[in-house]
Design brief:
By secondary structure, the protein is α/β, with parallel strands linked by helices. The protein has one domain. The protein contains twelve helices and eight strands. α5 (about 155-165) packs parallel to α8 and α9 runs antiparallel to α10.
Length: about 325
C-alpha cells in the first residue's frame, strides 16, 4: 500500500486522536440517522445518570486552583458538569487543560505524520515475533483493518490507534468527553484557556520511547483489546462515584505490564505539572485545572508532588 494513501487515511484518524489527550488514549463517534416520509415521534428522553467525579482545591490568600480529573471520552447521558464541579468552574477566571484542543484537524495531522511514520522504512510487522504478529494481525482483522495497514508506522502509533478505534462501536464519543464540554463552556463564558503541555510535547512522549517499550505498549494493547469495553465502563463508573482509590487500583493494574510507560506518561508529567501549578500559585486568581483522572489518583499523583512542594490539595465534598 502506498504511503500517500496511508497519509489520507491517517488524516481521518487524526480528527479522532486530536480530541483525546494521548496519555489516556486507552481509557472515538457514531451517530445513527434515519429518514422517513413522515417524522416519527421522538422517543421520551432518558433521565441523565448522575455522576459526582472527584474535585480538589489548592489555595492561599489570593489564589485558588481547582483540580478536576476527567475522562476523555464518554457516552451520552451522563450528568457530571453540575453541583460542585459547575460551581468551581463558574468561579474560575481561566481553564487549564493538558493540551488546548485544536480546531484545525488538518494541522494536527501534519504534526503527527512525520512522527508516526517510521522514516527508516522498517516495517512494523518485522519487529514482532511470530506469536506477537499473529495476535496483532488478529486484532486488526477484528476491527476490519487490513493486516498491513500500519506497516509503515511506528509501534506507538499502532498501539494508540488500536486503543481508540473500538470506542465508537462501544458507544463512546470524544464529543461527549469532559474536555470538550469544558472547552466549549469556557469559550462561551470568555474564559482564557491554556495548556500544561503542547501537542508536540505529548506526541514526543510516545515517539521518544525506545523501540522495546513501544512494542511492549503495542503488545499490551493487543492482548487486552477485548477487555477495552469492560475496562472503560468500569473506569467511568468509578470516576462517576469519585472513588479515586479504586480508580487508582484499576489503572495500576492496567499499567503493571508497562511500568516504564507509566513513568513517562503519568509520573514524570505529574511532577512537571505540580511544578507548574506551584508557580501559578504565585499569581492571584482562580484556575480550573482539568486533566485525566489517572493523574489525580494513587501514588505519584499530582497531589503527591504538590505536597512535596508544601501545597495541600483538599478534596471537596458534595
Amino acid at each position: 500500500m502506498k504511503i500517500w494513501f496511508k497519509k489520507r487515511w491517517f488524516k481521518k484518524l487524526a480528527v479522532t486522536c486530536a480530541a483525546i489527550p494521548f496519555a489516556q488514549c486507552a481509557m472515538a463517534p457514531g451517530h445513527n440517522m434515519a429518514t422517513a416520509a413522515e417524522p416519527a415521534a421522538a422517543p421520551a428522553p432518558k433521565a441523565a445518570t448522575d455522576a459526582d467525579p472527584a474535585l480538589w482545591v489548592v489555595k492561599d490568600d489570593d489564589t485558588t486552583i481547582y483540580l478536576f480529573g476527567t475522562v476523555h471520552v464518554l457516552k451520552p447521558g451522563l450528568s457530571w458538569f453540575d453541583e460542585a464541579v459547575r460551581q468551581a468552574f463558574d468561579k474560575s477566571d481561566q481553564l487549564m487543560l493538558e493540551i488546548i484542543l485544536p480546531d484545525d484537524q488538518a494541522a494536527m495531522a501534519q504534526k503527527m505524520i512525520p512522527l508516526a511514520i517510521d522514516q527508516s522504512g522498517k516495517t512494523l510487522s518485522s519487529r514482532l515475533s511470530p506469536d506477537e504478529l499473529k495476535a496483532y494481525q488478529a486484532a486488526l482483522t477484528g476491527l476490519g483493518i487490513a493486516p498491513a495497514q500500519f506497516d509503515a508506522f511506528e509501534p506507538w502509533f499502532a498501539a494508540m490507534t488500536l486503543s481508540i478505534l473500538p470506542l465508537a462501536k462501544l458507544g463512546y464519543d470524544p464529543e461527549q468527553g469532559a474536555e470538550k464540554l469544558l472547552t466549549a463552556s469556557a469559550k462561551t463564558a470568555g474564559k482564557p484557556i491554556s495548556g500544561l503541555e503542547t501537542i508536540e510535547e505529548q506526541l514526543g512522549f510516545f515517539d521518544g520511547l525506545p523501540e522495546e517499550q513501544q512494542l511492549a505498549f503495542l503488545n499490551s494493547v493487543v492482548k487486552d483489546i477485548d477487555k477495552l469495553g469492560p475496562t472503560l465502563d468500569k473506569t467511568v463508573v468509578l470516576w462517576g462515584k469519585g472513588d479515586t482509590e479504586a480508580l487508582a487500583a484499576a489503572m495500576n493494574e492496567s499499567m503493571a505490564a508497562t511500568p516504564e510507560l507509566a513513568k513517562v506518561l503519568l509520573f514524570d508529567r505529574n511532577a512537571r505539572w505540580a511544578e507548574a501549578l506551584q508557580a501559578r500559585m504565585a499569581q492571584p486568581g482562580t484556575v480550573f485545572v482539568a486533566v485525566g483522572a489517572g493523574h489525580l489518583a494513587g501514588e505519584h499523583s499530582v497531589q503527591d508532588y504538590l505536597k512535596e512542594r508544601g501545597l495541600t490539595a483538599e478534596r471537596i465534598k458534595y
